[in-house]
Amino acid sequence: MAKSQGARLDRSKLLADPILVATIVVLIAFLTLFILYPLAILMVDSVVGEHGPTLDVFARVLAMPTFDTAITNTLSLGLFVGVAAALIGLLFAYVEEYVQLKSRLMSGLFKLVSLLPVVSPPFVLSLSVIMLFGKAGIITRHMLGIYDNNVYGFWGIALVQTMTFFPVCYMMFKGLLKNIDPSLEEAARDMGASRWKVFTSVTLPLVLPGIGNAFLVTFIESIADFANPMLIGGSFDTLATSIYLQITGAYDKQGAAAMAVVLLLITLAMFVVQKYVLEARATATLTGKASRARMLITDNSVRIPLSVLCAAVALFVVLMYICVPFGALFKTWGYDFTLTTKWFQQMFTMHHGFQAFRDSFLLSLIAAPITALLSMVISYLVVKRRFRSRGFIEAVSMLAMAVPGTVLGVGYIRGFSGGIFHTGVLQGLYGTAAILIIVFIVRSLPTGTRSGISALRQIDKSIEESAYDMGANSLQVFMTVTLPLIKDSFLSGLVTSFVRSITAISAIILLVTPQFLLITVQINEFAEKGAYGVACAFATVLICITYGAVALMNLAIRRFGTSARLESANEEA
Predict the structure, then answer these.
(1) Which of 400, 385, 392, 369 is nearest to 491 (CA)?
(2) Of 252, 460, 492, 525, which residue is the least packed, with the fewest Cβ within 10 Å?
(3) Burial 268-282 (b: 16+ CB within 10 A, else e)
(4) Residues 136, 18 within the same domain
(5) Poorest-confidence range of 16-30, 192-206, 270-284, 382-396?
(6) How far is the C-alpha of 196 from the C-alpha of 191, rounded, in Å?
(7) 143: which DSSP letter?
(8) 392 and 414 in one domain?
(9) What is the pTM of this model?
(10) What percent of the chain shows pLDDT beyond 90?
(11) Is residue 262 assigned to a domain?
(12) Same domain, 143 and 250
């Protein structure tokens, strides 16, 4: 009874605040128009023909031998990468949380490896693998004397994706293992169980839902990945690359829409299981923080092998990233290792070199603050307000996380160059800077929203209610009370959005026109032509830009963030 009265009171307050109502209406319209509508158009395109509803398009696509090969390749690759990345991520997290590391260098190396894939372009490791293990590779040709090594195909993509995605699993497992109460494991040790027995009978069952969660997250990322299979896949087709080739090569938009629906249904099913089943179980299994510090493993028979194994993997990842700037400094990779700056000079003096950096930087710079603010607004409405469409806003804003980039790109092509908006203002979006900015916003929205929701749940509701009692409206409360309290999440969302936008390729490669040039598209084009020197030069500058953005964010949070203010207040006290 009291709960229903509270809900009615919240609704009456909501209706009395026109700014808040207008915000909700605009937000619902944006999410419906730019997330649900393109996906709905894809569904309609795949089942409606010239003479009405039909499944002929699906029948035609499913009968293609190339489609059978692509879906088999996609699922087998996702399965392998999901298992491999989850196992390596668990190993890294276990070593950091359970093993006594003698050197701070090792801990710093772990942090570096966990950060690298987040702020780097998606195909940097593909370039590195080609330069290390290709026919002119440093390791294969110059160290091992192998001249006919073929790095393209399943194993090349699997290696790159595993090295790219395992740090995500590592960060997930790190939080889970940190929250396990050490007394549970120590009780088993006191009863005479070996470390392996403790791990298999106590630790592993506790993190089992987390393992499933990490596997599905990696599986979704793997089957949705476009850049790496496009660059290092060779004749190994995946669904993401097949969709792209169906549009650009076969000019079959309806067939591409049907393929996109198949890929979308797979990722959505995995996302639902991951989000609403395994993630909930992982949270319920581990409640709260550990009651006391854990006794770290100092036994050399355990510590040394595990530390060496992790160090070897981490150094290998760092080596692959180091290859990129060296690839831009050598005259001809694999043949002439004379140092030169000609690839950087060519990059900046070529007709479209500067334009690619200008367009990428400006579009990302416009999208980032809009995304960060929109994420915080959605988080505020989801956590602090109760209204009927709140669940809709949260679900749709998170939906973009499960939609592969190529699927979204096809949806935007079908939705805004045709669909119900074949005339009018929205039809004019296609081929403009606005549609690229909107795609950047939609792709980065889930990450910022999750961060904002986590931060807002830690803020007592009474702080904002006191501002309302003093006569402030919702906009004033949000800007002067709520936003300053979650400025760390806002800054994090701002930089994350900028980095994700400037390194994006899968969602925008189908939407970018000759009017706009983007760095990632240029890297992809030069790498496909075999011009690895120029591709590495572009990638090196892009990595510097993204790392610079992250460094500025960390500096801003230390100087102006909420935690910095709390530290200064404690010192004064």
Answers:
(1) 369
(2) 460
(3) eebbeebbeebbeeb
(4) no
(5) 270-284
(6) 14
(7) I
(8) yes
(9) 0.83
(10) 10
(11) yes
(12) yes
Segment 278-299, tens digit of pLDDT: 666 655 555 555 556 677 777 7
Residues 497 and 445 reside in one and the same domain: yes
Q: Which residues of 306-342 are buried (b: 16+ CB within 10 A; e: fewer)?
A: bbeebbebbeebeebbebbbbbbbbeebbeeeeeeee
Angstrom distances, CA of residue 94 to CA of 39, 84, 100, 168, 290? 40, 15, 11, 14, 15
Helix axes 37-47, 253-273, angle to 10 degrees: 120
64 vs 71: CA distance, rounded Å:
11
What is the pLDDT averaged over residues 337-355? 82
pLDDT at 37 over 70: yes
| Residues of the domain holding 459 | 1-41+361-511
Give residue 2's pLDDT band: very low, low, confident or very high (50, 70, 90): very low
SS (HEC) of 281-342:
HHHHHCCCCCCCCCCCECCHHHHHHHHHHHHHHHHHHHHHHHHHHHHHHEEECCCEEEECCH
Residues 276, 398, single domain; the answer is: no
Residue 137 to residues 61, 140, 303, Cα–Cα distance (Å) = 38, 5, 34
Counting Cβ atoms within 10 Å, is residue 229 exposed (0-12), middle (13-18) or buried (19+)? buried
CA distances from 207 to 106, 213, 356 (A): 24, 10, 45
Asked whether the beta carbons of 340 and 502 are under 8 A apart, the reply is: no
- How many angstroms separate the CA atoms of 243 and 260, rounded? 7
pLDDT of residue 244: 87
Question: What pLDDT is attached to residue 439?
Answer: 92
Q: Which residue has the higher pLDDT, 27 or 46?
A: 27
Q: Which of 334, 351, 382 is the endpoint of a domain?
A: 334
> Does 355 map to a domain?
no
Give 72's pLDDT tier (boundaries 50, 70, 90): very high
Q: How many domains does the chain have?
A: 2
Indicate the Cα dihedral angle 300, 301, 305, 311, nearest 10°: -10
Residue 448 has pLDDT above 60, yes or no: yes
Together in a domain, 37 and 70: no
Identify whether the C-beta of residue 142 lies closer than 8 Å to the C-beta of residue 330.
Answer: no
Helix 519-529 × helix 532-560 angle, to 10°:
150
Instruction: Please indicate, yes or no, whether residues 182 and 251 belong to a single structural domain of this protein.
Output: yes
Q: Do residues 244 and 385 share a domain?
A: no
CATH classification of the domain holding 238:
1.10.3720.10
Q: Coil, strand or helix: which one is 404?
A: coil
Q: Which of 470, 489, 511 is the last residue of a domain?
A: 511
pLDDT (tens digit per residue) in 487-500: 777 787 888 888 88
The answer to whether position 535 is within a domain reads no
Q: Which two tokens stand for residue 121?
A: 């372009």
State the first-to-last Cα distance of the chain, in angstroms, to the nearest integer.
44
Q: Is residue 520 a part of any domain in this protein?
A: no
**Contact present, 521 and 565 (Cβ < 8 Å):** no
What six digits make up the tokens of 59? 């029948």
Distance between CA 328 and CA 458 in Å, rounded? 46
Q: Which two tokens stand for residue 351?
A: 């007709």
- What's the pLDDT tens digit per position in 378-396? 888 888 777 788 888 888 8
